Inverse folding.
């Protein structure tokens, strides 16, 4: 099978994530060392749609292991199955441009494609697999919420960045006896807030998976204030919301008596705590800093392992699959199985119990 | 003179700042090693007003060199010369409580006081010097804007934290061809934004000292976008504002045709850029993270030097002075000279010229 | 069962390891929160033998999550089953002091003991389990070579430190076209060298598990030198040795035609490479720096999870077991199963294949 | 004057140093922005001698601000005034190859040269100034021992790396009640050991400038052991030596009753302490790790300032000078004034007094 793989394309889609370059390097070095040609596709699916390809030589991928970002560029929105085409008069039409993509793929002489991205990108990949393209997928999300895999590269780096911010805020909080609410990424799943919160010993962790009762959070702050440790650190996933407030619809909580916006939970909580407790409270939104930077050693190893596994899938002709880790082993599952699905934290997740037992409240 | 100094008090006022513990340690170790007793005063002037003192032993200050925050606690608002006293019915009366402070000082048998803080704290210290207290001041501000000294401890750590955030945002910006505006601390002076911006190679730096022209900032972003490097990093001091927008009064720009709030410059600039250029633009407010964390090696050395110099001033009976660095040497000036004054960046500061020549715009 | 557990002892044995304090904190906070008393035993088994115990209160274990080292102290050598007792005349007698330990354990009213340590400490624990003590073991090794568990806390931090050193050496090597050999910890197993080497993109990785042929290593250096990248980074586990050189006996290779000492591989390799290739070569021995420092976020989470699991084992009366991770899940196995055993890297380990495919040689 | 400067050469000589790329970037961006051409010379003076030049474009120097090492390569030994030429039969002849260098300089159409390096490189530059080349020098040394300047870029990064290693060793030392001796760079001057030692709160600092009495060092270790803090951290500059042991000649102490080699002080001290005190003692040689890595924010700002000042000197035709910092200001002095000179720490340096007062011994 692998005899016929002369030319392999590679693209990165979705948000920035530490370790993208490490994956590109692993796939490209393995392929080039094996006498295959590697074609870099620029800006995710956009490059496939707009026919922007370039050959990646060995030196192009040397020295990129430790760099954040992606040398190929990325794009958040372009899904070939429903691509928004501007009509030049301020309107957009949604079109299926997969024929165009297949044509560019064939013109470029590509035999297979490695697609690195999140659930949206995998959804796009599933659509191209239907058109017969030979695709191997690679999960990418700092949120660690992709279905079918225990871990994704980039998450460990994001946790390290978030925990470092929480550690830093700790000193201010304790010097000033304040409540500090730090909002971390995670719309649907709270892995990042949970891991960073536990790593930094946060007093309260708010997760999308566990609706919080603001009065219980306030009580925790008051207890700590009275108990002599006059400060409280709260790590909040951006999708966390008060109990009884409905679901996030688009970016606002539906039917909420106390409406908050996605990405507004820190301010909401800090304001409420201050009103309920009279304690000085501040909100910090860490933002895009969590997506950037040099990957941790852990993520570089993981990304290299994932990249190598993708190459092995290519060589054995096992297309239409995405690389995952399950039960500590790197393996693969069909792309269609993971596309458009989210992995949230189970209520009985042992780390939640561990955190509760070591003094952390989840506001429930 | 120093024979009579049996008991030395020490307090930390104002916002959190890396290196506070290093100063406390240096003063206390030097004093204890010299057979003096050291009294830690809790929560800044509040502890003086409320009589909250405790003896600091050698072991209390061992191992704190590398820790952020202050083991003594701090307080932002309590100036003994005009202290806000609650009347229990929701109102506050401003009173001069210096008599009370002098009484507590004498009751505790203090012979001198080391006061570590920013311009507000120094203003309070000047008021106590007038009442005859033996005070040595120590400048503290991550903003580096205290009059009379070239550098203050904590600034280098804040610059390192801010530059690290800019570096991290760089990868996202370049992968997504975005404009990223990162708001850094600095209400009156832009030292932090300038130093972090230069350290990280920011494309645009906005300073309180140089009012910006948003159309020039937008042009810079467009130039970069067209020139193939489709991203722009903007480091903005929180006090930066558009030309012609008046002055910040309290926290809002006075008489502004285009009003912005202090601490809102990043959002303002990102919104305007997106409108003017159609480039994807994002705002990040780094916030309190800049105040926290382990001090850099540089700040630990500087704080130790400053602390030792404070001790020398005490021993030689040179009270009423504040430790500063001038022309690269550690020395001191009268507290009254520095209280309530701000040191801003001169227009002809060489680093601004260096930044311009190496590709950075200041939006003017 | 857990009703009877009123007092729980905890000790740390063997070499320093990041995350020890995080485990102590997790066990102690869980136990104290559950109305149990926690007794800290000083300096590992030495404290048990010499009866040095102290109560750990909640505040004693607050704020230690992020600190390296162990607040309890440790000791490398004291195994109660064969303890070296000085006779006061310069000689030592090996004695079984388990009766003494059991007596101290009973006198202190301990109901159970958490023993944190490496294979030697687990061997000591197995001996105490035979005497009826209620023990839960916790694996600890930066080398990650303990039998029965996929991962141990501390390893990730050591990998991060080692990879950072390799990254730093990279710049010197490339600026000066040198061969740099960096010796990393790992006597029997090369996990640390493998993970750090892959994370940093080392050109050659030498492992205890794969005897190297120095001429092949030299050829790799020459190839790189001729190919325009005139430098080579070699990550060497301290137990790596040339093919045909016998086994390490105590600390020297037995029957070796070319004898090297354990902990001398970097110098050996650098000298030989320089002779064989005429390339400028340097050896660096990273040493104890690998054992220290603030644990990574990953290790803090892992140590907290392990500590909580140990508490759960205590509460359910499942003594004589050691906490491990298998197939990605935290679970436990009998202490006797893991004592005195080492887990080495299998020859067909996927990461070795990944490293080979991405340009790394193993000298074989 | 500057009208005639059409083409500017730049080279980096001597050992690796963080900030070299930041200087190259600053000089090149300023020059290119000013319509000058910039020529990169490879591997220091070797490139001048062997005629290895290449044009540096704007994109060649983009993105290198944060990278360690030098994109131009460096060379330790090639001084054009006395260059060692191999005769092909294993011998070397020392020759003055300055005529050859002048020829290559003229052939390449260079109008001026920026030479970045340490005292040896400045000595070479002084020789080329004598032949009429237009040279601006830039001091470079992590040791911070160049005559005529208070600070050199790279030093702050090396201090940060060294202090981080001392911090890490701290945890092991305290957990195991050990004496840890960490050897840091600094043959002639102890700035690195002093700054890192103070930053990390080392208990003993050994400097080339202050010969130590091993029995006093041992007493300090015993005092700490008895006083309940059973560990001691010693930071030793590699040029430190026992009192009465003569001077280092080449790399060995001359006429020493107790001979030690340059770069052997840590092992020497650890062995002696262990014999004198029976305390468990270990030596760590940090080595080349100190030269590498991403420059600190401080060093990036300093290197950018220095680079810009070099450009200003070029533009104003002030050749034969080297950029320095004096009294906190960036300025310049004649190259001949600084060549072959070393700046050591004065005995009455305030930081030494500060360290003594805060508990550090210098072994004297």
């Amino acid at each position: 099978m692998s005899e016929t793989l002369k030319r392999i394309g590679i693209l990165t889609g979705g948000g920035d994530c530490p370790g993208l370059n490490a994956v590109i390097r692993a796939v490209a070095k393995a392929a080039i060392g094996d006498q295959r040609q590697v074609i870099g596709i620029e800006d995710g699916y956009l490059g496939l749609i707009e026919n922007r390809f370039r050959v990646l030589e060995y030196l192009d991928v040397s020295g990129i292991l430790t760099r954040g970002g992606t040398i190929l560029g990325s794009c958040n929105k372009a899904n070939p199955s429903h691509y928004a085409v501007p009509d030049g008069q301020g309107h957009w039409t949604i079109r299926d441009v997969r024929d165009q993509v297949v044509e560019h793929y064939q013109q470029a002489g590509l035999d297979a494609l490695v697609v690195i991205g999140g659930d949206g990108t995998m959804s796009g990949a599933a659509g191209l697999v239907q058109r017969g393209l030979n695709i191997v997928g690679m999960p990418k999300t700092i949120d660690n919420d992709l279905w079918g895999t225990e871990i994704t590269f980039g998450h460990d780096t994001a946790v390290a960045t978030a925990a470092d911010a929480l550690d830093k805020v700790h000193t201010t909080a304790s010097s000033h006896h304040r409540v500090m609410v730090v909002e971390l990424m995670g719309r649907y799943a709270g892995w990042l807030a949970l891991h960073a919160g536990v790593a930094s010993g946060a007093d309260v962790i708010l997760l999308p998976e566990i609706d919080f009762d603001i009065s219980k959070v306030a009580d925790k702050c008051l207890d700590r204030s009275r108990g002599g440790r006059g400060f409280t650190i709260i790590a909040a996933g951006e999708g966390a919301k008060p109990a009884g407030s409905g679901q996030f619809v688009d970016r606002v909580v539906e039917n909420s008596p106390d409406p908050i916006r996605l990405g507004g939970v820190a301010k909401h909580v800090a304001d409420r705590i201050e009103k309920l407790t009279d304690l000085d409270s501040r909100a910090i939104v860490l933002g895009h800093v969590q997506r950037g930077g040099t990957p941790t050693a852990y993520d570089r190893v993981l990304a290299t392992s994932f990249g190598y596994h993708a190459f092995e899938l290519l060589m054995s002709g096992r297309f239409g699959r995405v690389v995952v880790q399950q039960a500590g082993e790197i393996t693969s599952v069909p792309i269609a199985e993971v596309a458009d699905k989210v992995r949230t934290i189970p209520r009985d997740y042992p780390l939640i119990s561990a955190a509760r037992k070591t003094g952390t409240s989840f506001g429930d």
